[in-house]
Amino acid sequence: MKVEAKWLGSRHFQAEGPSGNTVYMDAGRQDGGTGQGNRPMELLLMGLVGCTGIDISMILERMRQPLSHMKIEAVGQRRDERPQSFTEIHLTYHLEGDLQPAKAWRAIHLSEEKYCSASASLNASIIPHLVLNGKEVAPLDVVEEGLPD
Fold it and tell me: How far is residue 35's CA from residue 55's CA, in Å, rounded to a whole number?
């Protein structure tokens, strides 16, 4: 995979990848930027939630679990010293639909442990949370047998 970033002056960049879509990045004013784009660390979290969200929607579809709505929140804790990498990321999956809790957790675990390249590329603890139809569901360590991998 190849991406290119073109410098637009100061701390502002325009990037494009193989998909052909354009992303703008910039630093905040306190770091000499103009705030005309997302910060790179924001994009890192956005990539993570996009990756795992795509996985989960596909897995639930294969499980014949009717998903009607999904929102994913990511909250990342960063080191104080440089590099200010993420040390811990909490992902809260807000799912709605006629979903079995065990299958929803199974989809989350499969994404995290097997399919999501973004989470596999990060050196941070990723802690999932599930809110199913408005109610928090505790993590399930034991999931139903016979679910698709």
Answer: 31
Q: First vs last Cα of the chain: how many Å apart? A: 26
Q: Could you tell me which of 137, 142, 126, 70 has the C-alpha nearest to residue 101?
A: 137
Q: Count other C-beta atoms under 10 Å from residue 45's C-beta.
A: 21
Per-residue pLDDT of the chain (149 residues; tens, 9 = 90+): 999 999 999 999 999 999 999 999 999 999 999 999 999 999 999 999 999 999 999 999 999 999 999 999 999 999 999 999 999 999 999 999 999 999 999 999 999 999 999 999 999 999 999 999 999 999 875 444 445 55
Q: pTM for this one? A: 0.89
Instruction: Give the helix ranges, DSSP H, for the chain.
Output: 40-62, 101-110, 117-121
